[in-house]
Amino acid sequence: MNHHATDAHTLVAAYALGALDDDERKDFDAHLRTCEACRQEAAEFEATTARLAAAVSQNPPAAAKTQVMAAIDGVRQLPPRLPAPSATPALGGFLRRRAVPWALAASVAAAVLGGVAVWQTQNGQELEQQARQARQQLDAVGSVLAAPDARTVHGKAANGALTTVVTSDQQDKAVFTAANLPAPGAGKTYQLWLDHDGTMRPAGLIDHDGTVILAGNPADAGAVGLTLEPTGGSPRPTTDPLLLMALPA
Predict the structure, then answer these.
(1) Helix (H/G/I), strand (E/B), else coil: 93
(2) Which of 131, 132, 137, 157 is the most exposed place for a label (fewest CB within 10 A)?
(3) Best CA proximity match to 211, nearest among 145, 159, 125
(4) Which of 144, 140, 132, 138 is nearest to 108 (CA)?
């Protein structure tokens, strides 16, 4: 592993996302046998990544297979892919630093964008905008999960929803993921809050299972709240919190 021993702990996210090369993974496997903290953190990253992929997955349109099969005969094959010239050391270092966000983006983008490519020609501009927004969201989420100082906490809301929050002081952002979140009902939505010394500040909306970047500054907040609010949200909570989960220290 091309890292000092004291830096091994910072590779947990890259390990969980499959972004290490074979030699590094072998060395990190050996590290995990002696480090309980890294074993637990790696398991949490793997579980969070699986939730992210499941939460944003989309089924392709019902007609997608028929359209693809009908178009196969008229699609020109791509030329052979030749190996690229060897990268310079500087570029190699840049690619290594970017490996984790790209790995996360690839793991979730396969679910988010899988159906988009098939029917993009039929819905060009609209789908291109959706794909661009999805990529931006994936990049933002990936930068938080892949941050060296990323910290994770799990919780369960009063309505049974399973929640995960990952924070990064370096990124000054927090990611919130919900699974098994019941439908909010007509005219309602779930609203997220950041608790700043007892003052609840709006941090975004979420109305179904999924992942969002919390609005606001999580660095000064002590907890994340979840309430059921009227559609569009409220400036202040109007119901008792379904969740008030302390942010990881």
Answers:
(1) helix
(2) 132
(3) 145
(4) 138
CA–CA gap between residue 67 and residue 75 (Å, rounded): 12
Amino acid making up residue 88:
T
The three-state secondary structure class of 60 is coil
Cα separation, 47 vs 16, whole angstroms: 9
H-assigned helices in the chain: 12-16, 22-32, 36-56, 64-71, 89-113, 116-119, 124-145
Neighbours of 156 (CB within 10 A): 13
Distance CA 236, CA 157 (A): 19
For the stretch 91-138, pLDDT in tens is 444 444 444 444 444 444 444 444 444 444 455 566 667 667 777 777
In total, the chain counts a number of residues equal to: 249
Distance linking the first and last C-alpha atoms of the chain: 29
